[in-house]
Amino acid sequence: MARAKVKKDWVKIAPPSAKIERIEAYFSGHGYEPHRHDTYAIGRTLSGVQSFNYRGSKQHSLPGHTMVLHPDEIHDGEAGTLEGFQYRMIYIEPALIQKILGGRPLPFIVGGITTDPRLFSATEPLLTAVDESFELLEEDDALYDLAQTLATVGGQHFHKRTFDYKAAEIARQYIHSAFSQNITLEELSMISGRDRWSLSRDFRALFGTSPYRYVTMRRLEYCRRRMVTGLSLADVAIESGFSDQSHMTRQFIKTLGISPGRWLKIVNKGS
Hints:
Jelly Rolls; Arc Repressor Mutant, subunit A; 21% strand
């Protein structure tokens, strides 16, 4: 009796964008180990059942549901049925949401999945096939609508508190320019003009993660760009600011849920 053909896992990455990262992927079973991003991960399941652990409970996304995973929240990913699952996802930096919302604490969607038609509609223009491109103004309009819809649907009531958005943004920009160096909180404090503990608090509230995690994510973002050029993992690690390849690998798995080698393999299959 012939065996049923098992579909291969794959990931397709959209052409680079200055604003967001977009992927489309298929996994036949287990997808990702527990990991976390410092971006919003906003997506839609196209087929199958997309199951994941998120904030202490098991979630199941069906076709038509909108997933909104908050920055720095641990989650994993696997197929909820034997069919496997296919999905599209966009990754948006909290800093971009902040530029639209003007320094308010980040919106949060309880449970990480919503059937709210407003968010379905707001994400539709950005969750297109990865081989489709946007005009710059089209992308900006879609991002503005999405940020405002997130604030409406997932807005929270906070105690009144003053955040120094300017100081936090100065620190964030400095991290982008020097992520491969050994950056300290004291250094960020001096550059931003904000005492370090207030800066750390504001950074977390405004950008969804700690300064150290933000540095690590910029290093891993750079790693992925360099890995696809064929540079050795050891050289990529040093160039990115990690102490060695094993240090990079630990952070890669912790952050993305898969090893650098497996990531390269499934990305190459999708290209």
